[in-house]
Specification:
Blueprint (H helix, E strand, L loop, with lengths): L1 H16 L2 H18 L2 H16 L4 H14 L1 H4 L7 H27 L5 H28 L4 H24 L12 H13 L8 H25 L3 H9 L11 H6 L3 E3 L2 E2 L2 H12 L5 H7 L1 H23 L7 H10 L1 H19 L2 H5 L6 H27 L7 H11 L1 H12 L3 H24 L12 H7 L11 H28 L1
Antiparallel strand pairs: 1-2
Helix pairs in contact: 1-6, 2-3, 2-6, 2-22, 3-6, 3-7, 3-9, 4-7, 4-22, 6-7, 6-10, 7-8, 7-9, 7-10, 8-9, 9-10, 14-17, 15-19, 16-22, 17-19, 17-21, 17-22, 19-20, 19-21, 20-23, 20-24, 21-22, 21-24, 23-24
Keywords: Membrane, Transmembrane, Transmembrane helix
Protein name: Fluoroquinolone transport system permease protein
Pfam families: FLQE3_permease
Length: 514
Amino acid sequence: MNRLAGAFALEAKVLWRYGVVAIAAVLAALWTGLLLALPASGAQALVPYLLFLDTAGFGALFAVALLMFERVEGTDAARAVTPVSPGEAALVRVGALALPAVAMALPMIAVTAPQGRLWGALGHATAGVALTSVLLVAACLGLGALTRTLQGALLATAPVIAPLVAVPLLHLAGVVQSPLLWAVPTTAGAELISRGLTARDGIPEGPGWAVALVYAVVSATALCWWAARQSTVTGEERAGRGGRPPAGRAPRRGPAARARSGPYAGPGRRVHPVLALARYELVGGRRDPLLLAVALAPLPLALVLRWAYPAIAEYLRSAHGFDPAPHACAVFGALVLLHVPVMVGSVVALRVTEDVDDRVLLVLRVSPLSLPAYFGFRTGTALLLALVGLAIAVPVSGLGPQVSPGLVTAVLLAALFAPLVVLATAAFAGNKVEALVVVKGVAAVSVLVPVLLWVLPGLWWSPLLVLPPTWSLLALPGYPGDAVPPWTVLLGGLVTAAAAALALIRRMRSRLLG
């Protein structure tokens, strides 16, 4: 028991050191403030989804990032000489990452609980958040242990996490009501959250609900056991089993090695190092297709919004008396306009972070591919993919306003947010865990800015002008700047984005060169 307590204390120190606890506190404050700023009916309708989607899943990706970072640092090999087994460490990590989720949920539940039902809401909703968090963290930890890279782990977890999240959402929204939904264990967690905050009774009733709850607890226990079993194989052992190239075959060369080997494509032909890196990325996409997946993701995202949003809006009107139609532009800004650039920029930023962990940037200093060229390629890729993604998602989603110079201005300025995400991650993150902290913060900004700019009265929104995403929203109908000529908004957004990029580049240069 003493070794488990020591392992938990060490895990808590790691989470504190890399900013996981800090970003949890920041997100809790931001979401609580947002719920207080919204009308009571809107806050009570939103909070179950916010608790389930964001808060309960807070630690899932951090579990994977910590696992991959420990492999790079050799922590999993060092643990072999300690009394704590890898399986026990995995169980401790599941518990340590579930606690911040519960702590984040407490103030959000307190400000939205129905009158006279505070303690009941706290009991039900926190239990639902804890149960869902354990399920998601354990699933991600076990799947991450089967992969060798963060990119591979994200691809491996996506098909499993998607139904664990999507099915309970269908249940919460009332779009589908079927006993089959309870086969997904996270549905019980979502129902606990809903019962605590809305007093809505779901299916099944009576003994069926008890069976569903026991099934979810048993599933969480089984997932924790499975994650612990997968974690008993260290990174070095897994590499020895299948991660290293076969004898007699040269290992695949990374972008730095490809560039250092010479900017030649054949006899008499010279290829620029950036073009060599682009060719490597295109070829490498077959082995590590996450960037290709995120490039294609805006289309299914837009199709899901086009299909699901009308049903969710009708449910909010009938069940909560909240009509989202007057707030369509705010919804469009948060779910499409800023979500696509953040999604693209986050994936490119994680690729940069992996290169940092693999010491690729050190090799670039003695290769024909310079650091400015490398970051120019990464940010340019993020900008191009964001523009293409927005060009697809904006018309297909059906949430955006009619085509106009203001909408074109909004799309152009929103696309600039993707390279800024890459630069911010490179400027403030030194490893995968810190990169996810930065990405979490950026994602929160992309959701909060459209809402705050929409609900704040008078000139209370003016401090938000220092944030580049704000300018992409000003040109949309209903926002404070919709009466300003689009070229004025475009100029202001370009200046703000350029200033932010210069500040981030200076910070990044001082950190990397230092």
